[in-house]
Structures are given as structure tokens and as C-alpha cells.
Amino acid sequence: MEIHPTAEMLTWAVMAAAAAMVALILTRSRRKEETTSRIPPGPPGWPILGNILDLGFKPHRTLVDFKNRYGPLVWLRLGSVNTLVVCSAEAAMEMFKNHDHSTCNRHLNETLKIGGSYTGTITLSEYGPYWRMLRRLCATELFSRKRINDTAPLRRRCVDKLMKWISDEAKEQSENGVELARYVFATSFNVIGNLMLSRDLVDPKSSKGNEFFNLTSELTELTGKPNLSDFFPILRWFDLQGLKRQTEAKQVQVLDIVGSFVEGRRRQDIEGKQSHTKDQKDFLDVLMEFEGTGKDEPAKISDRNLNTFILVS
Fold first, then answer.
1. 20, 84, 117, 206: which could join 308 in a potential S-S bond, CB 3.0 to 4.6 Å?
2. This prediction's pTM
3. 3-state SS string over 147-206?
4. Which of 121, 76, 116 shows the shortest CA–CA distance to 313?
């Protein structure tokens, strides 16, 4: 028996489909409202760009205005990346003390992710057994009171060199003045170099000795530049600004230099430390001699992580 659809049947079918569509839209809207209601308040933003244009040329002042308008927690959409801005000490304590496990990992921009080397550092790696191991080593071998007191003569020597650099520069450039920032930065670099490697890394008078210093400065500048891929991750494969390519090239050069420091130390150890005589171990010795004891800790720190840790430090 053949059944032919009538106009009445078609009308009922269209009405049923429309009702189902309306119900689906209402359900999704209700879910979206429920989700949105749990998000802190913030400016509405623009299509695609979000709140990027709202920040203006002085974002720190804009965020103060947002705090006065929306409260201590402000929700921003930077491109396609959602961002929560914490604008008060009380809110920060609530977030980072009572919800520390949820907020302990750092958001990395695209250039910091290159090569996956960030996993070997205490400043960029994810919270877990490896991070806790690095924190323990730093707390006992770098930041303990005894270690700080023991390295006071080392810091004194670096400050004495700083004063000599400034004095010599003042004599040579008596009319033009002295660029203090360059010497202070170089001294800070050498203090860290002596703590980590028992050697100066920078000499303002030597162009060859400044290669590592210059490369790391350029690398830091590249990783800090605004990158479209950070706001629109879908663009990261295109590397429109060339930052990924430039950062990768600089990173290879810097890690090669750091690797030469480590290999030089190993050669000294094989030769019986003839040229490496110190009253106490530096942090490179600690990292190279590390042997994991916990079940989640690595047996040794890999060369890649070793070089990266020294670079970031």
C-alpha cells in the first residue's frame, strides 16, 4: 500500500523540525550562559581581536581602570587566548596559596616552546617530580644561607671588577660619561657565571668574550617580542614574523657554547682537575654529579637539560 504525503503531514514535519531546532538553540544558549556566569567580569571586546585594542599603549594603567570597574579579577580575551588578570594582593594570595596546584604552571609563548628545551628548567617546566628535584637542588646549593655566606668573597671580587671597569671608562671617556647599565648587567652576568661555572662570562673590553653575553641578550629579546602566534595559535605553523626561525637559530648557538663549558669541565675531571681547582663545588659540579634517589626522579640529568638549565639560569 503506497502512502502519499499530504500537505498536513508536511506541515507537521516542518513544525517538528523547527521545534527541535529551537530547543537545541535554547539548550546551547543556556549552557553558554551557565558557563559564562562562572567567568569573572571583564570588557566585552571586539570580534576576533578580543580585548587587544582595549589595552592601549599603557596596559598597566588600563588594567588599573579595569580593576576599578570590574573588580580584583578581570577576564580578558587576547585574540583567541583567554586570560585572567589578578589585580590585588588579596586575590593573588587566594589564587596562588589556596589554588596553587591549579595555577602553578606558567603560560609559555611560542618562542619559549622551541625545541622543547623548556622542560629542563625550573622557571619554565611543568610542576612535577622533576621540577621539585630542581627546586630542592637550588634551595640547598644556591639559595641556602650557608651557600650565600660562602660566596660572599666571590661577589666581592665581581663588585671590585665593576668599580675598576667604571673607573677606567671614566678616565677614557671623561667628557661623554659612563654607560653604567652595561657594566652593571655584565657584573650580574659574571656573578651568576661564577656561581654556576666558576668563571667570568663577560669582559666589556673583549669582543670575543662577549659572544655568549650578546647571544643570550638577543635570545632574550626575541622571546619577549610580541608574537601574533601567541594570540592566534592557529597561525603558529606559518611563523609570520619569523620569530620562531630566528629564536631557533640563536638557541642552537647559545646551547653550543654552554655545551662547550660542560665538555671543558668533563675534560678537566678526566685530567685529574689539573686546571679546575676550587675550594668547593660550583653548581655545575652539583648538576653533573646528581644521582636520583626517588622513583620519579631521573637517574642523571641529561646533557640537554643540563645545558638548558645553565642557559636559563
1. 117
2. 0.69
3. HHHHCHHHHHHHHHHHHHHHHHHHHHCCCCCCCHHHHHHHHHHHHHHHHHHCCCCCCCCC
4. 121
